């Protein structure tokens, strides 16, 4: 069997030679072109497992080749070599469909990592441009929005370009990120999702980059961070807008250098991580208000993937509800009674698919013989959707379900001040009690619907879940 063949396109003889030698040593066959014209001639004659092109060539720009290869040789990944610090070129190339990039001076360890990743792509998918038709997706739904989303994911899975996923809370951002990873050549490596809003600022650097034994008090042994844990795979930065500015600087550096340094280590180590970020906030607005760095935004936001809210794809309600019930009760064991789907379609689902899951889980607990009736639903009447010809029954029903007994906030203990002028005797304990009290009140108000409680409190579902775990708050049936 012949070795995979790589096409190198560069007019600088020294660099070309270095690339050729490195690739040959990896057991690969190499063709070299000095110009776009020569590269086109090679491409017309042979199939390549990777094209690696410089950006400036005597007869044009490498980006032209990126566009041509992306359009004409769909199964062939193309990567570009960009000048150091030229984030713009790298981002433009990735947007145009480049698989990846390396910066000059070319670090050979990074080059090898990139080439291996391109080779995995051609072996994993046999050089196909799209994932095989019929591959089951985790993202359920047949609405046009979901079909287009799945097609985009299929294309995005084939590149290293950082993706920024936007969408309301619970709309499936993490699920989409997992799907991209699962369809990529990185699927056999880890997918690590990090909730940036849930990590205390003081621990962030250690959590992201790891530390060496003895780096600080309590560092009893070497520990990897998220970047090392996700090496070869995908790192999802969820709620990325919550990253403090100091951490944004460090993250930007790690992305630019593709290297990280553990706290207490002297040397940096290369990391091969595909980044996916997600937020339910408007990141561009965060840049305007100075909360998020422009340069990091530019690096993370190379490709945008936007998830539609559930209320904009109500056609999917039936299939989603069916899948959720099958998962909760076993296949075919539970179903929706008359008018339930219409009732659900009249609700605006601010918490999206997650809220649908919560609503059905709760309803199933009230349901007789696995048949959910309208009365088993506990939807907030205030949140019913604006009427829309497609989805609304004539009258939006108002459903009031008695709240199951939710724990009631306990009175403040001795840590609390006796009056407005007295100070608490133990501030952390006091603050914890205040937080617990507020969370419990929000949960009681929403009949323990965590999605709605998080909304009431203006925090994300994950933040609420994290705080509940921290404060040891459980749902009544837990
Ligand atoms: N299209 C879908 N098909 C099936 N399940 C879905 C879909 N979209 C979301 N879900 C389910 O909804 C729940 C929430 O999804 P996910 O955690 O991906 O949302 P998110 O947008 O990342 O939420 P958050 O903004 O709170 O982090 C999960 O249980 C997920 O499996």
Automatic annotation (TrEMBL):
Span of domain Response regulatory: 5-119
InterPro entries: AAA+_ATPase, AAA_lid_NorR, CheY-like_superfamily, Homeodomain-like_sf, HTH_Fis, P-loop_NTPase, Sig_transdc_resp-reg_receiver, Sigma_54_int
Signal sequence range: none
PROSITE patterns noted in UniProt: RESPONSE_REGULATORY (PS50110), SIGMA54_INTERACT_2 (PS00676), SIGMA54_INTERACT_3 (PS00688), SIGMA54_INTERACT_4 (PS50045)
SMART domains, alphabetized: AAA, REC
Entry-annotated residues carrying 4-aspartylphosphate: 54
Source superkingdom: Bacteria
Domain (Sigma-54 factor interaction): residue spans on this chain: 139-365
Keywords: ATP-binding, DNA-binding, Nucleotide-binding, Phosphoprotein, Transcription, Transcription regulation
Name of the featured protein: Sigma-54 dependent transcriptional regulator
Organism field: Massilia agrisoli
Phylogenetic placement of the source organism: Bacteria, Pseudomonadati, Pseudomonadota, Betaproteobacteria, Burkholderiales
């Amino acid at each position: 069997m012949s070795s995979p063949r790589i096409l190198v396109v560069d007019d600088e003889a020294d660099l070309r030679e270095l690339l050729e030698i490195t690739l040959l040593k990896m057991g690969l066959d190499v063709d070299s072109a000095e110009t776009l014209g020569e590269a086109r001639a090679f491409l017309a004659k042979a199939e390549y497992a990777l094209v690696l092109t410089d950006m400036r060539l005597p007869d044009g720009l490498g980006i032209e080749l990126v566009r041509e290869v992306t359009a004409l040789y769909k199964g062939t990944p193309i990567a570009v070599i960009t000048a150091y610090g030229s984030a713009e070129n790298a981002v433009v190339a990735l947007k145009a469909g480049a698989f990846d990039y390396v910066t000059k001076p070319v670090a050979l360890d990074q080059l090898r990592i990139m080439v291996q990743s391109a080779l995995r792509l051609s072996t994993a998918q046999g050089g196909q441009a799209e994932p095989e038709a019929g591959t089951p997706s985790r993202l359920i739904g047949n609405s046009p929005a979901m079909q287009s989303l799945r097609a985009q994911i299929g294309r995005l899975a084939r590149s290293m370009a950082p993706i920024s996923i936007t969408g309301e809370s619970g709309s499936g951002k993490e699920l989409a990120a997992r799907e991209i990873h699962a369809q990529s050549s990185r699927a056999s490596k880890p997918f690590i999702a990090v909730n940036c809003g849930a990590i205390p600022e003081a621990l962030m650097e250690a959590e992201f980059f790891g530390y060496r034994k003895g780096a600080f008090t309590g560092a009893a042994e070497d520990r990897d961070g998220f970047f090392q844990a996700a090496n070869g795979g995908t790192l999802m930065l969820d709620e990325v807008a919550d990253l403090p500015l100091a951490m944004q600087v460090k993250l930007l550096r790690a992305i630019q250098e593709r290297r990280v340094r553990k706290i207490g280590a002297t040397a940096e180590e290369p990391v091969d991580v595909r980044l996916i970020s997600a937020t339910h906030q408007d990141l561009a607005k965060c840049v305007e208000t100075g909360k998020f760095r422009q340069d990091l935004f530019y690096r993370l936001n190379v490709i945008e993937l936007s998830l539609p809210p559930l209320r904009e794809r109500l056609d999917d309600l039936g299939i989603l509800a069916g899948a959720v019930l099958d998962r909760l009760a076993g296949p075919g064991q539970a179903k929706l009674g008359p008018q339930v789907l219409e009732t659900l379609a009249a609700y605006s689902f601010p918490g999206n698919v997650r809220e649908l899951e919560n609503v059905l889980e709760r309803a199933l607990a009230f349901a007789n013989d696995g048949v959910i009736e309208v009365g088993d639903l506990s939807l907030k009447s205030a949140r019913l959707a604006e009427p829309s010809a497609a989805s609304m029954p004539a009258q939006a029903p108002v459903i009031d379900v008695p709240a199951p007994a939710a724990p009631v906030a306990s009175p403040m203990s001795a840590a609390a001040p006796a009056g407005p002028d007295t100070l608490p005797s133990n501030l952390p304990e006091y603050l914890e009690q205040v937080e617990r009290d507020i969370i419990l009140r929000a949960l009681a108000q929403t009949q323990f619907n965590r999605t709605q409680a998080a909304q009431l409190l203006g925090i994300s579902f994950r933040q609420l879940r994290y705080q509940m775990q921290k404060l040891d708050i459980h749902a009544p049936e837990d």
